[in-house]
Amino acid sequence: MRQQDWISLGACALLGLLGAGCGAPAAVDGATGPAPELDTQRAGAAVKVSKAVGKKVYVHLMPWFETRATSGNGGWGIHWTMANQNPDVVDGSGRRQIASYYYPLIGPYGSGDRDVIEYQLLLMKYAGVDGVLIDWPGTINAFDYPKNRANSEAVIAQTAAVGLDFAVVYEDHNATLAYNGGFITDKLGAARNDMAYLRDRYFNQPNYIRQDNAPLLLVFGPQTFQSPGEWTNVFSPLSQKPTFLTLWYESGEAGGNAKGEFAWIYPDFTAGLTHFYNNQPSPLKFGSVYPGFRSFYAAGGWGGPTWEIAHNGLNSFNQTLDLAKNAASINHFQINTWNDYGEGTMIEPTREFGYGFLTSLQQKLGVPYSQSELELINTLYQQRKQYAGDGNKQAQLNQAAAALSALDVTQARNILNGGGGGGTGVSITNGGFESGMTGWTTWTPNNTSGAAFSETYNGGHNSANHLTHWSGSPFETWTYQAVSGLASGSYKVRAWVRKGGGFDMARLQVKACVSCTFAFTELGTYGDWTQVETPAVSVTGGFLEFGFHTRALTGNTANFIHMDDVSVIKL
After folding, report:
1. Which residues, if any, are the signal sequence (predicted)?
2. Alpha helix (H) ranges present in 268-355?
3. Which of 40, 65, 267, 458 is deepest in the core (most CB within 10 A)?
């Protein structure tokens, strides 16, 4: 097994190597059916995000995750379960037992879920990503390859509407697994069918990535076809060969069919990347950016690597990003990966890292957006699910999605920040506490302001952080924010709250002038996140002050309030 083989295991491949089945359907040597159709219902006039760094930035996406609702067989997909995990087991923080040390901010999902895809692609867009490179299983009807291909095409259908390009990373190793499993008898024939499929359904799409005037195609290896003659055979259905990239140091196996190589993840970390950038003479090189490596394979009962590259918070990601950004020999880099939870290489928002990897991208690429827009995309996703059966609300959310695709953040915010009760959202600072206490002030009459702080304990409502009021000693704190320049009218303040223990006072409160009396809502006890809101107040002078006022006259470590996702709504 060559150094990269361990990481090429596509959907169900590990089970194939272990001799287990995936409930595979009957085998065929090719595939037919319509090309992926663009998702026009949510499409708007997509606008590309500008950035200071001119290099092309792509992200490697795994399309292999399934929930009970999306799998088609009522079970959880193997990439959430591996051999021994059960996502139906849920702990006190709402975390399901999944085959990963890291947890998606939106929870385990199905890769073909339309709302999930919209959320993922919009996050990529606002982080400065130019396109998505989809780990593509081919057309063989074996294991869960057909489901993964269908998920890939669900992603492809939404890329143009969001304003992203796409290409595929071909898993040629799947042909060997299918051959060994008795699903096919002709590996080269299966690969030719794959090329014809790509030619007829993907390569001709306007937003398929083209490099050097040819469609871009990456291969994860090669691992099955390891001679130039085999690749000439594989590409024989194509009138124009693709711009074909192999894994680093493997282009010789494709000979003149290969136009370059792409870097990946390896235990020597930045040393290997630096050597590849500075010394490998490949004419076209794609860099590799990744956050670390910590596989769940051993814990999940699968075979695979046990070495680790520590994440060190965001440091490893920033190191590989700076290397790729500054390397003179590359003009393209691939982020590895968007969502490989089994290997701990995901950059999409998680409970552990919040939006950190994406905000690092924004800052280092010179993107004119911040975490605020990423949180707004999360709000869109949450409302998609909250109002799943409401056609009128979904039509409004389609407008919000189109506005985000067109970079009209103000319009999207106005639509989304009304929540479930109508109204227009008002921009406030750090309503989700992902930037710590930035934008918020804490007052105390008794020097106990330390009882108010931002943290990640038990996870936030829609993101990693939340505000906490807690102390083992008596305390009183008032954490607040003020906004000005508001149009006259009626306003409410909404927030999500989780609370336990007993308080002498616990309020979400608001007032419309410095000398005004607060309007407030008493906070009850909530075992899970619950949305609360203040009474409406009339604003005539453009000013609004709002926040959380709590008091505990006796020390009790059971007294806590978690507060998150604060919003101000003009009615």
Report:
1. 1-26
2. 270-279, 315-326
3. 65
Per-residue pLDDT at 241 exceeds 90: yes
Which residues are CB-contacts of 562 (< 8 A; sequence separation ≥ 6)?
457, 458, 460, 466, 467, 468, 497, 498, 499, 529
CA 502 to chain centre: 38
Q: What is the pLDDT of residues 43-82, one digit of tens each?
A: 557 889 999 999 999 999 999 999 999 999 999 999 999 9
Does residue 317 contact residue 100 with C-beta atoms inside 8 Å? no
Count of C-beta atoms within a 10 Å radius of residue 500: 14
**Cβ atoms within 10 Å of 554's Cβ, excluding its own:** 9
Helices 114-127 and 356-365: crossing angle, nearest 10°? 40
- At a CB cut-off of 8 Å and minimum separation 6, what does 555 contact? 471, 472, 473, 474
Specify whether the CB–CB gap between 348 and 325 falls below 8 A.
no
The distance in angstroms from the start CA to the end CA of the chain is: 64
Of 465, 445, 398, 464, nearest in space to 553 by CA:
445
456 closest CA partner among 443, 469, 442, 467: 467
Provide the token pair at 119. Answer: 């959320």
Band of residue 38 on the pLDDT scale cut at 50, 70, 90: low
**Which sign, positive or negative, has the C-alpha torsion 317, 319, 325, 331?**
negative
